[in-house]
Input
Amino acid sequence: MHIVEDRITNLQKELMKIFSLELTEEELSEVRNMLAKYFAGRASSEMDKLWKERGYSQETINEWLNNHLRTPY
Output
């Protein structure tokens, strides 16, 4: 996924074509929720992939919880 600034992305163009009609607030909320779930699912899948690649486990989390990584002053 690549974030683009200062122009309309291909996703925005496609969504504008599909949703060129006026939606009620309830319908708009449903669309927002669907998009949020879609992108949350993608993020979750990427995190699962990363954890598998790096061999992380519950033990890794426990180690992180017990490490003191604060900067000494």
